[in-house]
Amino acid sequence: MADKKDITGIILAGGKSSRMGSDKGFLSLNGIPFISLIIKTVKPFVDDIIIVSNNPDYDIFNLKRVEDILKDAGPLAGLYSGLYHSETEKNLVLSCDVPLINGAILKKLIEGIDPEKDVVQLQSQGKTMPLIAIYKKHCMPRCLDLLQEGERRLREAVMQLETKTIELDPDLEQYVRNINTKSQLTALRNELAH
User: Is 46 helix (H, G, I), strand (E, B) or coil?
Assistant: First the structure.
């Protein structure tokens, strides 16, 4: 497995959260903010963590916070900004709306790193997950080209890079759920309460 000093964790927390109406990283489960849960899970696998967000409230975590270099240009811009500030070739990238993410999944991704591939992403129930993935720093120029062409979607970038996709075991699928709406959050809180 890759040495953690060779990997930077990048948490994308810059989304508009239009469906949720508030900053998703600060939503909580059992009183703990999503971002805290994610930081705790990522920490054992990386040496540094970068939070990509324009919100200074994230400074309370005493981690390196960087703002989007290109404003209002979606997740692709967040990835680009994170890679730009990373000092390692390998980067473990997560969105801030996967509070249940666990170490087994991150270990699987890191073990899947391939010298021939730019990206290692997960697939669950037939759906790829470019926001739970490893990206190499050398993806940056392609990301920038796409951003300059007006592209904002991460999926589009991944399709143009050398990508390896790892099928997630069905028993791990629950841990990659992303929480985008108030009803999803309520449902998750209710599940955890039982």
Answer: coil
Residue 115 sits in a domain whose CATH number is 3.90.550.10
Q: Domain of 125?
A: 4-193
Indicate the number of domains in the chain: 1
Q: What global pTM score does this model have?
A: 0.94
* The pLDDT of residue 19 is above 60: no
Q: What is the pLDDT of residues 159-172, one digit of tens each?
A: 999 999 999 998 99
Residues 16-43: b if buried by 16+ CB within 10 A, e if exposed: ebeebeebbbbbebeeebbbbbbbebbe
Q: Cβ(59)–Cβ(65) under 8 Å? A: yes
Residue identified by tokens 């037939």 is 126
d(CA 70, CA 59): 20
Q: Please name the helix (run of DSSP H) or strand (run of DSSP E) that holds residue 93, with its range, or none.
A: strand 90-95
- Spatial CA neighbour of 37 closest among 101, 109, 95, 129: 101
